[in-house]
Amino acid sequence: MPDVRLLLRICARALGTFLPMVILMCGSSAVDNGATGRTLRDVVHLMVIWAALILVYALCSYAVLAFRARGTGLQVTAAALDADQVYELTPERSLRLHTALGAAERACDVTGAPGEDLRFRWRPFRGKLFVDCSVSHDGSTGTSLLRMHAGRPRHAAAGLHGASAFVALCQVVRLVSR
User: Fold this and answer.
1) What predicted TM-score, i.e. pTM, was given to this entire model?
2) pLDDT, tens only, 27-36
3) What angle do CA 65, 154, 56 make, to 5 degrees?
4) How far is the C-alpha of 86 from the C-alpha of 80, rounded, in Å?
């Protein structure tokens, strides 16, 4: 069952993206036909159609996020759209991350040695959008915290670009789980 809060957040972002087009279509229908009952009915039909399309878009975005998260143990919740993601790494996975980043095509600007704090940038998609990542070590417990922060995308993205930190987290966790 999809997380309703996540679907609502995706719908709100999609509505913000598509709202100018909806207003333009409804407004042009009202201007072309004048203020009649038929015009009002057409505008209501357009709004219902757009609401259905946005809901389908949200469900598809949720399905893609769930597909990205499968096999990682990460839960797809409303927090998936947050710009900051935090994940706890075991010492073995932390060392595996250090070695895997050298060969990873999506990683760049890697600084830090094994056992020290690590900083790198990760490219979750094929474009130029990067996520800033850091791994900080806790000496008392032996665990490491992987923190990811997504910068603002160049456009107000409603779908996966709004969840770029979560997508990057899924990719990195899958990389160290192999």
Assistant:
1) 0.83
2) 787 777 777 7
3) 35
4) 11
